[in-house]
Design the sequence.
């Protein structure tokens, strides 16, 4: 029934079916900034530039923080700057929200679950700490995660 080279036909049809599959654009963008030597000086702004997959979309925005055991507080106060006026955030570092990662503890905080509207192909964020001490030990990384909001609805996610 099949010619001797039926394997080639199978490969040909498989190739055709794969050619019909389209690649989808990414649905999120993320940037992490490392704090040198785990000591964050108040005058050191952590700057993040994120290319947006869709400059017309609404995004869910999250702040990621990575700490070590040397971090002395049970909260973190930061000033977050974007195209809008700066916003001061008080972030509780609760054990039940911690994500253990070896010698580090990670936290993810939802900043905007109603949807942040993009205004171009790139988004700039600046982060500085607003803690009592000028130098803050035990913070090793901070970052922003932006996910395209689906269906224009408020979303809540657990990580």
Sequence:
């Amino acid at each position: 029934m099949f010619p001797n080279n039926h394997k080639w036909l199978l490969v040909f049809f498989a190739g055709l079916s794969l050619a019909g599959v389209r690649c989808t654009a990414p649905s999120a963008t993320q940037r992490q900034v490392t704090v040198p030597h785990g000591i964050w000086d108040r005058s050191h702004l952590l700057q993040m530039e994120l290319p947006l997959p869709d400059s017309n979309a609404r995004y869910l925005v999250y702040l990621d923080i990575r700490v070590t055991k040397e971090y002395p507080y049970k909260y973190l106060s930061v000033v977050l700057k974007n195209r809008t006026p700066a916003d001061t955030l008080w972030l509780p570092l609760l054990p039940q929200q911690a994500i253990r990662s070896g010698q580090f503890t990670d936290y993810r905080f939802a900043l905007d679950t109603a949807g942040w509207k993009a205004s171009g192909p790139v988004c700039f964020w600046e982060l500085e700490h607003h803690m009592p001490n000028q130098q803050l030990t035990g913070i090793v990384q901070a970052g922003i995660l932006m996910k395209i909001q689906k269906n224009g609805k408020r979303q809540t996610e657990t990580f």
